[in-house]
Each structure stands twice: as structure tokens, then as C-alpha cells.
């Protein structure tokens, strides 16, 4: 009987160590349930135009992740001049026209593009017949936790809450939206867990440590 207890404790210890180790690797239980992600933010060097860019994905009705680089221009909605923006990535030229977005009350240009990983890139903004070169730089610090590391930190720091969304078959029953944000030179992760009734449990995590700074219910 004593040998059986020792064997059980050994197997239990091995299992705990295995689970803890797997959280340190690239594996992430929650990542497949992320339906919307903003993973990078870019600021333009233009003093004339208030323009920025985001990169990430949204899942469509077929649960396919569509990665996009989104440019957002504010303050120029009433100008009549046609505005286009273009850039080169992986030896391919991308070009799109800015259109008015009623949801954000801004001009936007959207590019579907996979694996966009630049931290700085050059664009050409065409306004009417004028061409302007604009450099975009990421405002995300280099030493922030990755998306998967941050999700693992949330899972480990809030075990009771996150496991409450797991059914008897081991499936996570909610969807997750995740955005990296910037404030006063610091980066934070916003994570929203949306249940089947569209109730949202929102978290704010510090990007360098994964520490949960705030929790809020949104109904």
C-alpha cells in the first residue's frame, strides 16, 4: 500500500511539473479561442497628418483568422482629395485607398497581409496629386511578453475563473478578444473573455510581467 501511495505521489508531481513546464513553452491552451487580436501598433512620423496603424486579426464566420494591417487617419474626413497609401513588404507592393468608416468617424485603409513583422516601415501617402513619404514605427517595447505568454499568465494567475469556462469535455466555451495598448510609453494587454450570453470579463495586464492590474465585468 505504501508503494502505491509513493507511486501515486510521484505521478502527481510529474504531472504538475509537466503542466507547469508546458506553460513556459510556446504551447497555450487559450490561444485557439482568441477571435480578435491587435498585436502591434505603429505611429507615423508625420506632423501634417494624424495617422497610425494596427496589425492583428479577426475571425470570420468560418472561424478563419484574417490578418490585417489597418491604417487610421483622423481629422481629414471632410477633405475632398482622394487619399491612397502604399508600401512594399516582402518584395510586393501594396496600395489601398482611404475610405470613411462610420463606426470610428475616421478614414481607414485595410490590407490583408499574413506574417507582417516589421517594427519600422516606409509608406507613400498620395493626397490628390501630391506624394508624401511617411515612416511608421512600432510603439510596442521589445521586451513585452508575447501574446501566448500573456494568455498563459492570465490562465495561471486566474485559474478558478478561467477554468469556469471549461466544460466537461475540456473545451473552452468562451471567445477571447485581445489588444495590446500604449499609454505614457508603457504597454498593457487588454483581454476580454466573452461568454455565450455576450457577458464580458475584462482584464488589464502589465505587458512586462503578465500581472493582472484590473478586472471588470461588462454586461
Measured by DSSP, the beta-strand proportion falls in: over 45%
> Class by helix and strand content?
alpha+beta
Shape: elongated
Low-confidence stretches: 1-25
Q: In total, how many beta strands?
A: 13
Total helices: the number is: 3
Order of H and E elements: HEEEEEEEEEHHEEEE
- Residue-averaged pLDDT: 88
Helicity level = 10-25%
Largest sheet: 13 strands, mixed
Distance from first to last alpha carbon: 53 Å
Rg of Cα set = 22 Å
Oligomeric state:
single chain
Question: Can you tag this structure with a few keywords?
Answer:
219 residues; alpha+beta; 13-stranded mixed β-sheet; 3 helices; 13 strands; 47% strand; elongated
Q: Would you mind describing this structure in some detail?
A:
With 219 residues, the chain is α+β, with helices and mostly antiparallel strands. It contains 3 helices and 13 strands, in the order αβββββββββααββββ. The protein has helices spanning 2-24, 147-157, 159-163; strands at 34-44, 50-59, 65-74, 83-89, 92-97, 99-101, 106-112, 120-127, 130-138, 175-183, 186-194, 200-206, 212-218. Strands 1, 2, 3, 4, 5, 6, 7, 8, 9, 10, 11, 12 and 13 form a 13-stranded mixed beta sheet that branches. Strand 6 (99-101) and strand 7 form a beta hairpin. The longest helix is centred in the N-terminal third of the chain and has 23 residues, at 2-24. The N and C termini lie far apart (53 Å). Residues 1-25 have low confidence and may be disordered.
